[in-house]
Amino acid sequence: MEAKSYQTTGSTRALWSENTIDVDSTSMIECALLCLSNQQCCFASFCTNTSTCRIDTSETCCINTENVDGWRTIRRNIYLPITSTRSISIGNSMYAIIEEGATWQKANESCKCLGGKLLELETSEENEFIKDEVRTLNTGVEGYWVGGYNFNHDHDMEWLSKPNQLMPFSNMESGEPNYPAFQPCMMIFRDFDFRWGDHYCSSQLSYICEFQYQ
């Protein structure tokens, strides 16, 4: 197991909940292995004094914690939940295609919790790679949220990580964005052959998370 697969924080533990399980563990490394081998676990806690490993199975990396001496939390750097339809890689990036519907804000928060971000398509190669994958899936969804946002409510959109910069590459559908004041969130549309467009942020759509290898 490589150290880069998880990170630890001292004097804190996951709060007990219906999604947690306490098991005996001889070490923090063993506790980390227990979490990493469980598809539903992104977050665990280990207590040296009691040799207890608390496994959280809520399929999220953002959970409630409390400060407690003698405990350490263990959090995966990248976590792909069961709801991820497919995980794919190109270059130094990995992507999780998640069919579960969410608002744009919820999708953005979910990707951050998993250790990544909403997809930002910055090259033609990356864009075509993703388009080929979602065409192959052919799930019939309306489209997928990506990490573009209309910060200035004009006819240009920006990536979340670079709000003050023009997009270095664009595959925007002709006439899009067409409602910048009301549809500031960006998606790739199935009806546009997965070219880009704006949409109402409150819509429930599938989404794609992007992760960078360390």
Automatic annotation (TrEMBL):
Transmembrane segments: none annotated. This is C-type lectin domain-containing protein. Its main location: secreted. InterPro entries: C-type_lectin-like (IPR001304), C-type_lectin-like/link_sf (IPR016186), C-type_lectin_CS (IPR018378), CLec_Tetranectin-domain (IPR051663), CTDL_fold (IPR016187). The keyword ATP-binding does not apply. Coiled coil: none annotated. CDD domains: CLECT. It comes from Mytilus edulis. One of its GO terms (cellular component) is extracellular space. It is found in: Secreted. SMART domains: CLECT. One of its GO terms (molecular function) is carbohydrate binding. Residues 90-210 form the C-type lectin domain. Gene3D superfamilies: Mannose-Binding Protein A, subunit A. Keywords: Disulfide bond, Lectin, Secreted, Signal.
